[in-house]
Amino acid sequence: MGLRYAGVGVESTFKTGVVPTRWLELLSEDLTLQIATEKLHGIREWSPRKIIELNRMISGTLRTKGNYQEIALMIDHLLGDSGVAGAGPYTHTQPSASGIPSTGRIGKYLSVGLRKNEDLYLRFLGCKLTSMAVSAAPDKITEIAWGVLGADVSLADSPTAPVYLDDDVMIPSEVTLSFDAAALDCEAVEINVEIETDNPHLLGSKVFTKEPVETGAIAVACSATCFFEDLVQYTKFANVTDVDVSVVLDTGGDEIWTMNMNKVRLTAGDPAIDGRGRLKATYEWEAMFDTTATSNFQSVLVNDQAVL
């Protein structure tokens, strides 16, 4: 199977490839070169004479282990400019309190380098992050899947030897889910943030000549399975009450990741009977804009990285 690794680098010019500067704890990937074609044939023939390439783009997902040290750059490219505070440990807040999230993402693009074995190294160019899916459960290290939309792929680049940061991975005992500052007995939680993005194919080129930009509202849809203890949280669901939700991953040291959703509407919360097993409720929710976080989702990451 050979050497396999993945890294990302910040492009200063859209589609101009750069070597990776941040290496990812990659679990799997499905980045795909999608080539749109049209078959050339008319009424005079029974089979196509030629298949014409119309345009191309990159899409797919990078599935990684959650690591406090390596995700600041990825979150910055997903959510917009980071407000960095402190002198070590450093606090990265996205979006920053004074920023407008949609404009903070403009001008941010990555090169993604993937070495699949000794003979195959691909560099994906002009990549934008379009989604983040965080999943935590008692039987695994927290995982994060990053949605990618890119312009093209280069086959002519040479691989760069990876240099990984500390193995500060996110483990189940560090995760807390709270509704209105009350911690729940949570068995599993999934946080999904998606940013609707256009595919800017223009006449005159087969690849994007302009960077993809946000075209719709940020969608934050989440779910959690919790032990059902009383009617407090179910009442909020039944009464259609707004809830302040936070998911905190805390090592007890310098590394903390807080995901704030200050105004949430619970869309599901019925406890389900399964034989004589423990009664559990699966809460589902969507987040709305809130002035406290200047968005419907805010990430506050504390780590040792002064530079993204």
Question: Can you offer a commentary on this structure?
Answer:
This protein has 308 residues and is mainly beta. The chain has one domain. Helices cover 6% and strands 51% of the residues. It has three helices and 20 strands. The chain has helices at 71-79, 101-104, 232-238, and strands at residues 5-10, 22-24, 26-29, 32-40, 50-65, 83-85, 90-94, 110-117, 120-137, 140-150, 152-154, 175-179, 182-183, 186-197, 214-227, 242-250, 256-268, 271-272, 280-287, 298-303. It has a 20-stranded antiparallel beta sheet that branches. A hairpin with a 2-residue loop joins strand 8 and strand 9. The longest helix is centred in the first third of the chain and has 9 residues, at 71-79. It is globular and about 70 Å long. 34% of the residues are buried. The mean pLDDT is 92.
Give a quick set of tags describing it.
20-stranded antiparallel sheet, mainly beta, 6% helix, 308 residues, single chain
